[in-house]
Each structure stands twice: as structure tokens, then as C-alpha cells.
Write a structure and sequence with these properties.
Elements: H1 14-26, H2 30-45, H3 50-60, E1 64-66, E2 69-72, E3 75-76
Antiparallel strand pairs: 1-2, 2-3
Helix pairs in contact: 1-2
Bound molecules: iron/sulfur cluster.
Length: 92
Amino acid sequence: MAWTLADGDCKDLTREWNAWETAYTAARTTVERAAALTEPAAVCAGCPVTFECAELAWLSGYTGIAGGQGYRNGQPDDLRQRRPMRRRRDTA
Ligand code: SF4
């Protein structure tokens, strides 16, 4: 059976999904990103096309939330620091 993302549980949550992705994108730490994923991940947990959605996110280079996790350019974005602290220069 063919599937589309229209089969997904997020199909009627466009406004909420945009807000969740905006919050996720703005999050600067792994803790903030995990918090931003709480609500959309709960939706994805019951979705019938979670696997296919995650695969499409990977194949399409998606940036956002799909399949219950965050993606950046098609790669899972769970643990990476987006803006690692700069190293201090030795002043001695
Ligand atoms: S897995 Fe999540 S993002 Fe993907 S279609 Fe289902 S509810 Fe939507």
C-alpha cells in the first residue's frame, strides 16, 4: 500500500507543527532541543508512518522534526552542539 505524509498523525496540526519546529530551531542546547521535541515526538509515537517519515527526512535532507526526532540537513540532530563554545586562547 502506498503511503504519503498525509497519512501521518500530524496532518491536521500544521499550525502546531510550525510552532514546534520554530521552537526546535531556536533551541540552542541539547536540553532545550529535547524539551522542544516533547510534544511533536508524542504525536509521532502513535503515527502509522513513523519509519517512512524518518526515511524520507533522511533521503530529502530535511531540516526540522520528523519521525519523532529532529533533523538537520537529513541527519539526526539529537546530540550535536550547534554553537560549541569557543576555545579560549592561551594568554600566557
Ligand atoms: S512520523 Fe511524525 S512528522 Fe512524520 S508523518 Fe507521522 S506524525 Fe508527522
